[in-house]
Amino acid sequence: MKAHLLIISFLAFALHAPAPAHAIGGTSQKPNVLFVVFDDLNTRLGCYGDTVAKSPNLDRLAARGTVFTRNFCQQPICGPSRASFMSGRRPDSLGIWSMTRHLYDAHPDAVTIPQWFMRNGYTSMSIGKVLGGYGKEADFKTLSVPDRRTGGKTKDEFAMPDGATLPPNLAKDLLCENRDVKDEACFDAVSASLAITELRALAKKPEPFFFALGIFKPHTPYKVPKRYWDMYRREDIPAIETPARPRNAPEIAFHANHEILGEPSAHRTLDEDAKREIRHGYYAAMSFADAQFGRVLDALDELKLRDNTIVVIIGDNGFELGEHDCWGKMTLFGWDARVPLIISAPGIGVGGVKTSAISELIDIFPTLTELSGIPSPSELEGTSLVPALKDASASVKTAALTQYPRPALYWGGGAQALPQVMGYGLTTDRWSYHEWRDFKTGHVVGQELYDEQTDPLETVNLAGTTEFAVVVKEQQALFDKLLPHLPKRQK
Asked: Is the pLDDT of residue 167 over 70?
């Protein structure tokens, strides 16, 4: 079984030895790094082409950096995703697919990105939710300064001054709160303020820094100040473009949507008003998160750190808001698997460009080490994206891998529980191939094939048709090459 959980070494794409520390912004000093992780942030952003989204600060970063339009998470749920990209290893290599197993519990000697930078002369710190899922106040085993969760138990609530009355809630859905409060009443605003304070102190120090900031929104519940709700008119919120499940898709591709609809035993049904309010709430929460990021970006400029600071923003996983009859994440569909990645590396490439090069979140670790001129750990399984930063037309890999288990909520069995079925999504330039397998035997219990060129919304499953049988076999051959640790495919 151990071999089943480990990805054979050649899955770790070839890592190039980094060049010596180069000048960024006209200085020979090693660059600083600001790494910002948003929770449940999908590509509903202005810089990704959403004409309704109001994301001026992320768009501002995009204007001076590179937007990766085909970037994928390794598992669309926070804990396993973060364990993966922070360690630079895939979920199967870590044996982490649920919220009950944390990185250091499974791998006591694991080294994360900020820890590695600290070993290489950086001051490393973290504020907010960056590594783990939920439940642990301190995530990283060691950093230069102990990491901090600034919201505690109030992260889902408005924190009012002593004696202050909470303004009325203008929203109706149980996942939404629209109250006329200041930003400071919210968890993420507190995190951003603390980050700015720390950046002011770091700017005075001679050594470079690695600063990780976790922004909780736009995660549910959609509780943000009224002014962010007011940025959108309800009638302007786009209707669900693909509300139906893909034609011919297997049942195992879906789940109970518990995050929005509640536990199966107490499922609720959303009427059209509730659907529009939830979608409105997501946009409002995204704009609130964007504003907090903007404050930190302003501080970088004010402290004259921009020219020697690499800035990276990501979403830890995507999120569906009614697409494919899905609410939440935990599927292999594009809305869940594809996530934002924007990298601004001063002095590298041309700012304000988009690249369609396929990329994955596990590529961030080797990308940052190469940009910073420090070595990479030998166990990394990603590929440096520096070639795509230098030339947006460059390609760094042929495919991206995303996976998710079934049952979708299997962690009730404890930290050592194994999933019954694992779904693997393989995305290439044209195709998105999903294969659902019995985790122990390799028996294939479901297949999907979507043509991302002619059907980017993934409305028709082509697997099982005679016309596309050859394409399925081609995708399976690539699948087997990239996942040699899996048992032989059983029909």
From this structure: yes
3-state secondary structure the chain: CHHHHCCCHHHCCCCCCCCCCCCECCECCCCEEEEEEECCCCCCCHHHCCCCCCCHHHHHHHHCCEEEEEEECCCCCHHHHHHHHHHCCCHHHHCCCCCCCCHHHHCCCCCCHHHHHHHCCCEEEEECCCCCCCCCCCCCCCCCCCCECCCHHHCCCCCCCCCCCCCCCCCCCCCEEEECCCHHHCHHHHHHHHHHHHHHHHCCCCCCEEEEEEECCCCCCEEEEHHHHCCCCHHHCCCCCCCCCCECCCHHHCCCCHHHHCCHHHCCCCCHHHHHHHHHHHHHHHHHHHHHHHHHHHHHHHCCCHHHEEEEEEECCCCEECHHHCEECCCCCHHHHECCEEEECCCCCCCCEEEEEEEEHHHHHHHHHHHHCCCCCCCCCCCCCHHHHHCCCCCCCCCEEEEEEECCCCHHHCCCCCCCEEEEEEECCCEEEEEEEECCCCEEEEEEEEECCCCCCCCECCCCCHHHHHHHHHHHHHHHHHCCCCCCCEC
pLDDT number for residue 483: 93
Q: What is the pLDDT of residue 490?
A: 75
pLDDT tens digits, residue range 389-431? 999 999 999 999 999 999 987 665 565 678 999 999 999 999 9
Q: What is the mean pLDDT of residues 42-65?
A: 98
Q: What proportion of the chain, given as a percentage, has pLDDT over 70?
A: 90
Grade residue 29 by pLDDT with cuts at 50, 70 and 90: confident
Residue ranges of domains in the chain, CATH in brackets = 2-394 (3.40.720.10)
